[in-house]
Amino acid sequence: MSQGLAAPVCLADYERLAHQCLDPNALAFFAGGAADEITVRWNREAFDSLALRPRVLRGGSGGHTRIALFGREYRHPVFIAPMALQKLAHKDGEIATAMAAEAQDACMVLSAQASVPMEEAYRAGATCRWFQLYVQPTRAATLQLVRRAEDAGFEVLVVTADAPVSGARNREQRAGFHLPAGVSPVNLEGLPLAVPPHLPRDASLVFDHFMAIATTWDDLAWLKSQTRLPVVVKGILTAEDATHAADLGLDGIIVSNHGGRTLDTAPATIAVLPEIAAAVDGRVPLLLDGGIRRGTDVLKALALGATAVLVGRPVIYGVAVNGVLGVSHVLRLLRDEFEVAMALTGCRTAADIGPHLVRAG
After folding, report:
1. Whole-prediction pTM value?
2. Average pLDDT of the chain?
3. From 76, 90, 258, 329, the catalytic residue
4. Residue 132 — φ and ψ, nearest 5°?
5. Is the pLDDT reported for residue 90 higher than 80?
6. Active site annotation includes 258
7. Which superfamily is assigned to 11-354 in CATH?
């Protein structure tokens, strides 16, 4: 950590310190959201609006935070969300994050737009087991990425479905965001690009280009048929889409609004989680990202139907402030706070966590 900066004791401290450490270009990329960043704010406010119901005199030994997903046991339900181009935040980028994830037994989802080769990230941390996939312009290119991830040892594919086109990111535009030399999505090198065609004057770039090549449910069904790995869809915000994913035979759902980076005024993820959980009714596991900043947030997400949560920006802030040690501390803080929240609400294991623990504040 840079000299002169007070030692952080919570995730909010890391965010404040990262605003001092990151250059304006990187800060705009990582901290910014779509348009007026209303969804970014709602993600946080929705957690704050939920109160926990403490339970007392329920001590005893044998408590733990373990969960199981896709045939593997995880020490705790705090996962690392896929985030692109982490070398913008620290010279070691995703390597530092993977090493910290292993040190804290945290499952890491590697972004397809990582700034280090997927094989190097996998070797850097044994818990870097999930690979995030954007369906490519051609199925051959998509399959090339899938086979490479399989060969590297990844165990789960996470398909991001909610970003066929993004709303304006005002903060990035004001900062004149650009990729500096030495930082690029290296795992996509050599794959065909979705170059906008020369459209007629009255054509729409959104509808006649981006949506014309956007991922569809048929693409996910095809992908499921092409791999032995579980396929999880990320970016679900409605009960209807969650039901369709389960009916299609997909293996899991991540309730996500892309950290508020695509559609501004999309709902907070924790706000829609209960209706999605009710619609799916246990057919597939649910995970959630968006706004996680405290261990109490983890407990609230599990109480309302999630099996695990994914943490994004706080991890970037941790790596920006202090590399491997910063990310490791962020994860440790969340896990410790989660354990305390479990204890103070009378929960010894994840099986004890349920909607009875949460009420509107």
Report:
1. 0.95
2. 93
3. 258
4. -85, 135
5. yes
6. yes
7. Aldolase class I (3.20.20.70)
